[in-house]
Write a structure and sequence with these properties.
By secondary structure, this protein is mainly alpha-helical. Helix content is 49%, strand content 10%.
Length: 414
């Protein structure tokens, strides 16, 4: 996109977002307004200003340099139904590109959004807390963070501590569970210190000063609670398989409610989730089970071949009237987002395997047109490279070409 007098260069990423408004609309849940979604994303880009001594690019700079990373990240955010640049879904720069991370609030929000969860409880456990949970005997943990211990005289100071700040000791674990709409208690998830540290080690940015793992969540006077929100998030993520988090769950339960298969409390909790309808007179049966399965497949696609198969199967289901056109459009947008992510990952991996002084790195970064890509491949064929190095360069050229939509035939095939 070329900047104009009306559209300064720094605003180009924002304009690019708005040009894809229809695409975001199809992916976002109906409860999320697309204008608010894009406005929040734009505000996050403009608000991220460079700090003194900061070497990494700002969100706006990274978006301008790598616009596809911005679109891909926002599509993932939209598929989750979150607002970008908030506590639900953080936007940040990694390796010069835009990426996003679902926050603790986002994970919990998806549980509430299902309509089947009344309350979500996520807590850290510290060394001096009183804690008990026996699986099979207790339906939920017994946990006292203040008072209830030796020296508690029943006063506020006895409960909160002499200075209004109780020394709970270092964090040693975390737990999470949910109260469901019908009054039942979900599985209780326990996280020992080893589990939390393993999750921290798996984070690429855990050692960064800006990482939430290193944030003083309880202030400088309580460094023992550093990174507490990430302990909560880790516990909430472990709870996720045991608690409904998807809007698809609401649709299935509404179908069950229509047949009288659900108790009254569950029906009342789901009244805000109308069942989808096929076009009148179509005579087709809505295949909710296939759509739920297809959404799961789309979210976990690992290859373009699998993406192409799912894309064509989606089109066939829509053509047969088994899902609505809106369902098909949203699912295909999700598939397209995953394909872009797969291609971006292929490109990143290929480039990372080329050394910093590799001449081909600069050549690939400078590719801008289909003709450039063709010339680069022809030059590669004539170059005297070893087999492994040749494959890395070829993969990077191909992935970048696809990311820039040079191969229109490939896009059409999907």
């Amino acid at each position: 996109m070329t900047a104009t007098a009306e559209a300064p260069e720094e605003a180009a990423p924002v304009l690019a977002m708005w040009q894809r408004k229809d695409q975001f609309t199809r992916v976002l849940p109906k409860s999320v307004d697309v204008d608010a979604f894009l406005g929040t994303a734009a505000a996050a880009l403009y608000a991220d200003e460079k700090k003194p001594g900061q070497k990494t690019p700002t969100l706006m700079e990274a978006a301008a340099a790598h616009p596809l990373s911005l679109v891909t990240t926002l599509m993932r955010c939209a598929a989750l139904g979150h607002m970008p640049g908030t506590d639900e879904y953080y936007l940040h720069v990694r390796k010069g590109k835009i990426t996003g991370t679902e926050g603790y609030r986002g994970v919990v929000e998806r549980m509430y959004r299902s309509g089947a969860v009344r309350k979500v409880i996520v807590r850290e456990v510290c060394a001096k807390d009183r804690f008990r949970f026996i699986e099979g005997a207790d339906d939920r943990p017994y946990h006292i963070t203040g008072g209830g211990s030796d020296g508690d005289d029943g006063t506020g100071a006895g409960f909160f501590g002499a200075n209004g700040s109780r020394d709970r000791g270092p964090m040693v674990g975390a737990y999470a569970y949910a109260e469901l709409a019908d009054g039942a208690i979900s599985r209780v998830v326990l996280l020992y210190l080893d589990y939390v540290m393993a999750a921290r080690a798996a984070s690429e940015a855990a050692d960064s000063d800006y990482s939430p793992w290193n944030r003083l969540d309880a202030g400088p006077d309580h460094p023992e609670l550093r990174g507490r929100s990430m302990w909560w998030k880790t516990a909430a993520k472990r709870l996720e398989p045991w608690v409904p988090t998807s809007a698809e769950y609401r649709r299935q339960m509404m179908a069950a409610a229509a047949t009288g298969a659900l108790p009254a409390p569950a029906v009342a909790a789901l009244t805000a989730a109308p069942a989808r309808e096929l076009p009148a007179g179509s005579g087709a049966r809505y295949d909710a089970a296939w759509l739920d399965q297809a959404i799961g497949q789309a979210e976990n696609l690992r290859s373009e071949h699998a993406a192409g198969q799912l894309w064509r199967e989606t089109a066939a289901k829509a053509g047969a009237g088994a899902i609505t056109p809106a369902d098909a459009a949203a699912l295909q947008d999700l598939i397209g987002t995953r394909v872009t992510a797969i291609r971006q990952n292929t490109y990143d991996q290929a480039m990372s395997l080329l050394s910093e002084n590799e001449p081909w790195r600069d050549k690939i970064d400078e590719l801008a047109t289909a003709e450039d890509a063709d010339r680069a491949v022809a030059e590669l064929d004539e170059a005297d490279l070893d087999r492994r190095r040749d494959q890395r360069v070829r993969r990077a050229i191909t992935a970048l070409a696809r990311l820039k939509e040079w191969h229109n035939g490939d896009e059409g095939d999907q």
